[in-house]
Amino acid sequence: MAMTAQEIETYIRTALPDAQIRIDDLAGDGDHYACKVVSNAFRGLSRVRQHQLVYDALQGHMGGKLHALALQTSTPD
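RESULT FIELD:
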């Protein structure tokens, strides 16, 4: 069973309450998403660490229930 965009957003928002989140279903199959997350929590962190925070927020669903996630992270301007 695939994850919905709403489920992904809920997981991320729980971990990063200030986040601005945009999720696009790339293939229309609920299994391949692009996600852009903007949060102050990323300030001063490497891109790798920013992505790790998002993956941690997904609580182990990446690679299982969630097959593919093209991720972009940044801090607010």
